[in-house]
Amino acid sequence: MKKLILLSSVFFAALSATAQTAVTDTVSIGASYISQNYYKLSTGAETVLSTSEWDLGFQTGIMSGGIWVNNMTASLYAYPAGAASNTNFTATWDTAGYATSWKGLFNPQTSWDLGAFNTTSDGSVFDYGWGVYQGGPTHNVLGDSLYLFVKGTTFKKLWIVAKISLENKYIIRHANLDGSGDDTDTLSFNPIIAKNMGYFAFDANVFTREPNIADWDLLFTRYNGTFAPPFNKVTGVLSNPEIQVAEVRGVANVETFTDTTGAGFSSVLNAIGDDWKIPPPPAWVIEDSLVYFVLRGNELWKLIFTGFGGSANGNFIFTKELLSTVSVKENPIGNMVMYPNPMGDGQQLTLVYNLTKRASDAAYTVFDLAGKMVSREQINGETGLHTQTVNTGNLAPGMYMVNLTVDNNTQTLKLIVR
Q: Which of 36, 100, 144, 237 is at a distance of 20 to 30 A from 345, taking alpha carbons?
């Protein structure tokens, strides 16, 4: 699996000499992968929850707009016959051939901020996919899209009507295809803002399920893979939004390896993912030269997968080792700005950056939202304030990430091209 790698702005100079002994642990999501397991590295605590108990998931942050669908039990399709309106919602929907002719939507598994409902965004900072950001003073998002939700024999029309941002509430409308059961629900997430996601089920309304963000590090689960077509389900590990992960391959001795120098620490959701194992036939094979480093706060963990039980029991077997606290070299990147942003057709983008110490390697890199590098150039690494013209001649309208990387330290800015 290819993964988008966003380099961390920290570089580890040394590890404490108080590293603990490696511990072997087994985490299970059950036969046929029927559960999700939220796991805390420091305590080994597990929170095991049914995969099938939720339909929609909402990021709880006041200014967030990520909305997920439970792709393990349900399917989501974009309604192709009109934008969100009362007329289009109440109209008779012709769903013949929907499974092949309507656009199926899937959770991308790259960021908690990007669920299936966000994948139809045009890439601008104002387009959330399901709705359009209205700006200040309300910061509300108004829904402009309709969806078909399918779960077994249940078919629902669905409209994310709005997010009332300052109150941290979503308004959603849903009905059966024949127009019966037309309900509008207001979902309030302020009471559970300490959690990463809040959940909704059509038969249970809004409810809590996962532990607080502070109480778990890794989510062992079944999810949609990123390879297509089609979107296949895989089993692997997703990351808490507050951790970063580095993947190091080709390690000769995984038991003694602790070198994080130059490792690219990533906040991507599936930075661990599922590709530490090779599927049957004839049997699951675990990559034996692969080490993961997991950073949360100043704790650095080493993770090595040693076994996988597959659908027979859903067991993940691994060793974990706390490499204790880390010392961090001073980040040489001071202030960094770029202008104009948003940038219109024919305009020249300028990057202004300040280096607090001389760098042996300095470069900027431009990525699109799919993680593809579209531009890169070495730049001046001397101490002081610098102005750099950025190559943007081949950028189509949309959103991009501009990384300034200086001796393994990276800062990132969002760029909007109109």
A: 144
203 conformational bin, left if phi > 0, alpha if psi -120 to 50, beta if neither: alpha
Cα(9)–Cα(267) distance, integer angstroms: 11
User: Could you give all domains of the chain from N- to C-terminal order, each with its CATH number?
Assistant: 12-51+213-326 (no CATH), 55-207 (no CATH), 333-417 (2.60.40.3080)
Calpha distance 230→26 (Å, rounded) = 31
Contacts of 337 (CB under 8 A, 6+ apart): 351, 352, 353, 413
CB 53 within 8 A of CB 201: yes
Q: Which of 61, 32, 63, 35 is nearest to 47 (CA)?
A: 35
pLDDT tens figures, 289-343 = 999 999 888 789 999 999 999 999 999 999 999 986 554 455 677 767 777 878 8
Among candidate residues 359, 293, 360, the one with its CA nearest the CA of residue 320: 293
- Between CA 36 and CA 211 the distance in angstroms is 12
Beta-bridge partners for 317: 26, 307
- From 67, 65, 92, 72, select the one nearest 81 (Cα to Cα): 92
pLDDT tens digits, 148-163: 999 999 999 999 999 9
